[in-house]
Every structure is written in structure tokens, then in C-alpha cells.
Amino acid sequence: MLTVNAYASPSATEPLALTTIERRDVGPHDVLIEIKFAGICHSDIHTVRGDWGPQTYPLVPGHEIAGIVTEIGSAVTKHTVGDRVGVGCMVNSCGECVNCQAGEEQYCLAGNTGTYGAVDRDGTITQGGYSTHVVVAEDFVVTIPEGIELDVAAPLLCAGITTYSPLNHWGAGPGKKVAIVGLGGLGHMAVKIAHAMGADVTVLSQSLKKQEDGLRLGADHYYATSDENTFTELAGTFDLIINTVSAAIDISAYLQLLSLDGALVNVGAPAEPLPVNVFSLIMGRRSFAGSAIGGIRETQEMLNFCAEHGLGAEIEVIPAAKINDAYERILASDVRYRFVIDTATLN
Ligand SMILES: [Zn+2]
Ligand SMILES: [Zn+2]
After folding, report:
1. What's this model's pTM, rounded to 2 decimal places?
2. Which CATH number fits domain 160-290: 3.40.50.10610, 3.40.50.720, 3.40.50.300, 3.40.50.10190?
């Protein structure tokens, strides 16, 4: 066992604090990663506060991990000491079900093993990336190509793949009109990636406050959804809408913005069920869909794509001591667009 420093949530109601945790010994198929940067995802906050169900504490969140391999197991073939690597939202899956076999481990029929707060296959509770080191099975470790700095790469492991995967699956590209709902951590990556794919990109945001930013990040158009005219003007326009907002929105109104055969894909998940007017699906053969992160192969493809196009997240790097402040600022939408913890400050 390796004892390492980490920032953990002691309970659902207390602030996170510096502590130590145990990492397992490096097994034959494991790599030991010295974490350099860990992104803060909105879901970290929901999870540690118990919003999505009870947790085992202390809990170390963090599933946007970028670092360097410092040790490898005897049977490891994919990575070597010194490699720049990343770990995203999952660290294991059954490997045998039809979805795992298809390289869609995130949809493992036995349930993928989350990077933190999940029961690992050895029965222990996984602990995430707000830490100096992590031991992960090599199959769930991806390579961060030269050309992306580790700090701006970290958020790609959740925010990047969560938006890349539906854009890729639903064929965003030249000649396609794509709308991104919400310009936050996920939304800003969706804009960058959709633009790099060659799509005509529109941001649909509550107000025009971030318009200048949106256009700078690669959007071609920017509309305020608080303006009723937006919904009449854009009716029947988009081939694909990616909804990154976790709050409840009027899905039926957004469905009306889709062209024939268009799809509205939710990557944000409100806690409550959403009502949908089925006529808005029928009249236009439209789809309302969801998408969760991406498989390991696709995550590597996304990182390669981002390196090729010079894409990284827009970040604010913070020391670990600022994690609790960062949580409050995320809840107040006061970040452009992702906090990244410099894990050297955990030492
Ligand atoms: Zn996340
Ligand atoms: Zn499986």
C-alpha cells in the first residue's frame, strides 16, 4: 500500500480537507500515476454532498486526472514510466459484456466502476484525483499527446469526452448545424470541439452575457433563450442540439428548434423527470436522446483530435487550499470555464 496526500470530503455537510489515503499496490496490469492536475467537475460537488445518493466517507472526488506514469506492473504493455497520461470518469468495467466488447465501457451492463465513490472489483471504495497519486488498471489509462499541456488536458477527461462523444456519434461536421445549450464547463468544450469538427455552431444561453466569449471559442451564432423571439426565429434549424444544462428546461420548446430527423441530446441530467410533448418528436421525426462520457477508445480519439486541433479547456488553476472556495464559485457560475487543482500544492 502507498499512503498519499489527498483532499477529501469528511461528510456530506463538511468542507473538504487535507488528509491521507491508501492506494493499492501496483498489480501486474496497473500503472502508478503521479497526478499533476485534477479538474473540478460539477458532479464532484453533487456527489460529495450526497445529492445523488449516500456516499462512504471520507471521499476524495476528481475524475479529470492528468499526470505522469511513475511505475508500471509486470504485465503492462500500453504505458511506460514517464508517459503523460489521463484518467477520466471510470477505472474499470466487466470487460466481457456486449457493450464492453464494443469498446463502450461506460455502458457496461454490470455497471462501470466510477473513479471515485464506487465499489471497485476488489471491494474497496474508489478514491479520485484530488490526490498526489493514483493506481489504475492500464486499460483505463489514456495517453495525453504532446501538444496539449497537462493542465488544460485534465478537463478533457470528463467535459471533453462527454461532449465529443455525442458530437461524434450524431455526425457533427461540415454542413451540419449544431446548437449547444449552456456555456459552462461542458458547453465551452462542446463549442470548441463542434467548431473544430467543421459544424456551424450556435450557442443557446440564458442571456448574452458570455456572447463575446462564445464567439471567441468558435461559435458562429449566439442567442439568448430568455428572448422569446429566439424560439420563433430558430424553429426547425438544427441537425443536432447538445444540452449541457442540468437544470430542468422546456424540452418541447427546444425540440421545435430541430430540423427533420434532428436530435436533441442531453448530457446534463436534472434530478427530476422532464415532461416532453411527444407531438414535437412526431412532427419532424425528431429524437430526444442522452449520452454518457465515452468509451476508452473514443476518449483516446478525442485527446488525439484535441491535440491535432490545438484544443484544451479554458481553465483557472488553483491550489488545493482553494477547493472549497472553488465549489462555491462553481455553484454561483463564477468560473470560465473549469477549475483545475495543481496537485503539487497537496505536498
Ligand atoms: Zn465530470
Ligand atoms: Zn461490461
Report:
1. 0.97
2. 3.40.50.720
